[in-house]
């Protein structure tokens, strides 16, 4: 197995999850079925997704000095993620995500950044030693965008490839694009980035072309049940989604995709196989409730790919 590692720079949140029969309308109060407090945050989720799939991972971010922060750190450590890069901030609360999930697995999410929103240039300097020997830096947008840009610039200067999951959806400053090696928006995020609806492979192709013109070499647009459109330099291709039932909870599907993608690339797979690995990780995640608790391990992913894609049992995924 490849001994290099992946660094995740991003958010750690406690997810406050409410299960309901349907999502509430604006101004409406409904009765829920179940409440859970689950360790989450897109950064922490992706770090655990990477670690469970067999690649060493280091997490860099912030939590508050409170019980939520303690729980989040313990969850990362229980999944063999290196947390020496996570700063415990004395005067801040840990980030929180309020999530409502209906019976179809659709969700509404409100993220309250707290400690995540306090990341600054000092955190980018704390990131530097963790990048030594890394293959990839994986980031999201639940931390200040200026810090994401500075971290991407640092990684690029050190020869480390940057994967950006541009979620939650927002516009990006133009200079950031040239420091991103791979960007992985879903359809809504792609629409925010390019300014027109992205609903199918034709519009995904147009969006990818526009994003490449802004400086990103590789664009992967996830289209939910349709699949993933990828443009890499002059090459482009489409990877169909896995048909999987039942869909229980889609909260961490994107995090699983990005983690699986990064792991496969770190292990030396080509882009198409790496997207298949990411898609499989995402598909497996939606069949279980929760975020981190739903992320698949290496054995589960390996078995799934053997059954669905016919990859031979003796094929090394990493």
Q: Kindly report the name of the CATH homologous superfamily.
A: Ribokinase
Percent helix: 25-40%
Number of separate strands: 13
Strand order of the largest sheet: 5-4-1-8-9-10-11-12-13
The CATH topology corresponds to: UDP-N-acetylmuramoyl-L-alanine:D-glutamate ligase
Q: Label the structural class.
A: alpha/beta
Principal-axis shape equals: globular
* Spans of at least 5 consecutive residues with low confidence: none
> Regarding CATH, which class?
Alpha Beta
How much of the sequence is in beta strands? 15-25%
Give the CATH architecture: 3-Layer(aba) Sandwich
Distance from first to last alpha carbon: 6 Å
Q: What composes the largest sheet?
A: 9 strands, mixed
Q: What is the radius of gyration?
A: 18 Å
What's the total helix number?
10
Q: Give the domain tally.
A: 1
- Summarize model confidence as the mean pLDDT: 93
Order of helices and strands: EEEHEHEEEHEHEHEHHEEEHHH
Write up what this structure looks like.
Strand 9, helix 5 and strand 10 form a beta-alpha-beta unit. This protein has a single domain, classed as UDP-N-acetylmuramoyl-L-alanine:D-glutamate ligase (3-Layer(aba) Sandwich). It starts with a strand and ends in a 10-residue tail after the last helix. Helix content is 35%, strand content 24%. The strands form 2 sheets. Strands 5-4-1-8-9-10-11-12-13 form a 9-stranded mixed beta sheet, sandwiched between helices. The chain has 318 residues and is an alpha/beta fold.
């Amino acid at each position: 197995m490849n001994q290099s590692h992946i660094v995740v720079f991003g958010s750690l949140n406690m997810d406050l999850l409410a299960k309901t029969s349907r999502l509430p309308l604006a101004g409406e109060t409904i009765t829920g079925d179940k409440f859970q407090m689950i360790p989450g945050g897109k950064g922490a989720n992706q770090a655990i997704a990477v670690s469970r799939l067999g690649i060493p991972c280091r997490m860099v971010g912030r939590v508050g000095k409170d019980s939520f922060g303690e729980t989040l750190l313990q969850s990362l450590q229980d999944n063999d993620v290196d947390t020496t890069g996570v700063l415990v901030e004395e005067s801040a609360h840990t980030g929180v995500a309020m999530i409502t999930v209906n019976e179809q697995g659709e969700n509404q999410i409100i993220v309250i950044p707290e400690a995540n929103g306090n990341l600054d240039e000092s955190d980018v300097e704390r990131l530097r030693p963790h990048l030594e020997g890394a293959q990839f830096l994986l980031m999201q947008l639940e931390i200040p965008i200026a810090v994401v840009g500075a971290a991407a610039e640092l990684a690029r200067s050190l020869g480390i490839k940057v994967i950006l999951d541009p979620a939650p959806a927002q516009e990006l400053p133009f200079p950031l694009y040239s420091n991103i090696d791979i960007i992985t928006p879903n359809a809504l995020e792609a629409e925010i980035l390019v300014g027109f609806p992205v609903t199918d492979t034709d519009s995904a192709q147009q969006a990818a072309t526009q994003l490449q013109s802004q400086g990103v070499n590789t664009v992967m647009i996830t289209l939910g049940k349709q699949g993933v459109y990828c443009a890499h330099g002059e090459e482009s291709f489409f990877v169909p989604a896995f048909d999987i039932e039942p869909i229980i909870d889609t909260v961490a599907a994107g995090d699983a995709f990005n983690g699986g993608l990064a792991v496969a690339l770190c292990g030396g797979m080509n882009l198409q196989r790496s997207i298949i690995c990411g898609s499989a990780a995402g598909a497996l995640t939606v069949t279980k409730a929760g975020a981190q608790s739903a992320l698949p391990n290496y054995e589960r992913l390996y078995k799934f790919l053997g059954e669905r894609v016919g990859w031979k049992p003796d094929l090394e995924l990493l």
